[in-house]
Amino acid sequence: MKLVVLIPAYNEEESIEKTILGIPRKIFGVDKVEVLVVNDGSTDRTVEFAMNAGADKIVSHKRNMGVGAAFMTGIRTAITLNPDILVTIDADLQHDSQAIPELVEPIFNKQFDVTIGARFVSGTTIDYPKLKVIGNKIFTRLVSWAAGQRFADTQTGFRAYSKEAIRNISVVNDFTYTQEVLMDLKFKGFRIGDIPIEVKFHRKKSKVVKSIFRYTCRVLSIIGKTLVYNRPNFTFGIISGILVGGGILAKLLTISNIFIVNSTLSSGLIILGTVSIMMGVFASVVFRRQSFAERDIRDRINQSNLYERSQ
């Protein structure tokens, strides 16, 4: 049994060494633990300190591309290392790496395919700003609604993935990955569970949330795009319902002389709603074709891996 710990890092010279040294190298049921660092274009001594701390493999971007891009680089690299379980952890010492055995145990036991190191559970969070807790809860509820499963924390980077899960991850956004990957894997039928963990807040500027307004807009965009890609009928159905409903309501108000609405506007809303339904059907067909193509590619990769191992 092989475990790979993935650490995306951008200018983390102050904490990367302690993060790596804190990762347990002996875990019950695990034969080998390897540490993979993805250096996302750091301009400080992150790579040097990671090497000194004993990172087994370091992959670097020539420039800063975003934590989402770093995550996917880590996933692609980790697959070549052939781990049975992959753990992702932030490099800022927020998470207790000694909780890794607890995080991977449900995957060992085949209880879950993905486990989330959930913060903000009663008694597990220390000195976290109330504003960040509130923001996290709002996004967590939104992602939970979109994915159809109640999560405790959808913004954390401390997670564990089974081999099958990491081979099915498809994150296309470079900005961040935390929400998209959960929705992506949930829509693909993987079992996801929350594991309460203890965290400590470090008062330094976030490299992802530089502006609350900008972060909110981008995350909402990611959630929306993920829904459109994975649940086109559902997404366009909601849009269609709003448009058609608005058009019908406008006509009823006009007929009742309660409020006069331009007939062209009300008819236009109904037409747009009908078009939205048609777009949902078309997008659903395209998505199914894409899913079959991705499955075919994965099957070929799996067959290739089996052939290589047999030589």
Q: State the share of residues found in helices, binned by percent.
A: 40-55%
Structural class: alpha/beta
Uncertain segments are: 301-311
- How are the strands of the biggest sheet laid out side by side? 3-2-1-4-7-5-8
Number of domains: 2
Number of strands: 9
Order of helices and strands: EHEHEHEHEEHEHHEEHHH
CATH homology-level superfamily of the largest domain: Spore Coat Polysaccharide Biosynthesis Protein SpsA, Chain A
For the CA atoms, what is the radius of gyration? Answer: 23 Å
CATH architecture of the largest domain: Alpha-Beta Complex
Question: What best-fitting shape do the alpha-carbon axes yield?
Answer: elongated
Give a quick set of tags describing it:
311 residues; Spore Coat Polysaccharide Biosynthesis Protein SpsA, Chain A; seven-stranded mixed β-sheet
What does this structure look like?
It is a single chain. The chain has 2 domains: 2-226, Spore Coat Polysaccharide Biosynthesis Protein SpsA, Chain A (Alpha-Beta Complex), CATH 3.90.550; 231-310. It has 10 helices and 9 strands. It has helices at 16-21, 46-53, 67-81, 100-108, 130-147, 163-166, 178-187, 212-230, 232-255, 263-310; strands at residues 2-9, 32-40, 57-61, 85-88, 114-118, 125-126, 159-162, 192-196, 199-200. The chain has a 7-stranded mixed β-sheet, sandwiched between helices. A two-stranded parallel sheet has the order 6-9.
